Amino acid sequence: MERRSRSYVQLIKPGITLSNTLTGIAGFFLAASTVPLNVLVLVGVIFGVALIIASACVFNNVLDRKIDTRMKRTKKREVANGVINVYKALVFGSVLGVIGFVTIIILTNVLTFFLGVIAFFWYIVVYGYAKRKTVFSTIIGGVAGALPPVAGYTALTGRIDLAAIILFVILFLWQMPHFYAIAMFRRSDYSSAKLPIWSVTYGMKSTKKQILMFTITYALASGLLYVFGYTHIFYLILSVAVSAYWLHQAIAFYNKVDDEKWARNMFGASLVVLLSTCFLIAVGGYLP
Q1: 69 & 7 share domain
Q2: Crossing angle (nearest 10°) for helices 147-157 and 14-32
Q3: What does the DSSP 8-state code read for residue 77?
Q4: Which residue among 126, 159, 192 closes a domain?
Q5: 221-264 confidence digits (pLDDT tens)
């Protein structure tokens, strides 16, 4: 029973579910710096976003089960190796999704509900198809990954304004170095699965250039919340420091270590940047 429970937990890809929920919470607290805070809406954001993302991850596991068997990193995933059969996974994913969407519609608003639908569909169907067919799949998939902070924001404000768009841009740009780094140090896995990602199609050097370019673009975008008056000077100072850290990791070791080690270093740094960014977005409207 305990092993089976752990298998179901792994099915929701806890890292992805948690990180996306954190970005949703960050978006909520940015909104709360401009409109009155509502605890029930926060509960809706936390549980609604988490359950919808968890559901999408379960369905992704089902759809990718054949691909997963061809990759060393994923061949032991619960659906791929048969620990959980397809029917039970689909039921589990459906229950999570229904509860998640009901939570969102009851505790937040219709706009946030539709953002959830878009993200859910985009991740499972659009990105699921794209990663099998095009080298631009990471960029396409980034749309779904950038919507949770927007949903957290709209849950409280009920509107998509410039702040919501900036949140989307920041999280979209963060994803590119993060996932391209994975594509570099897991290149052999993706090649075995015959997936046309950038590192497989265009090589490691080209992918490194993409990572550096997106890291620089992220650094520029992260200050936009200050530029347009949604946060204050402390946010700008701290966000510049975070961006400088990531850029230093990218540039200082660009030609000093092998490509795979560089990519692993950038991946690790991206996690620090994500946590820092979520914190700064959440408190940026309250800092001096």
Answers
A1: yes
A2: 40
A3: S
A4: 159
A5: 999 999 999 999 999 999 999 999 999 999 999 988 899 999 99
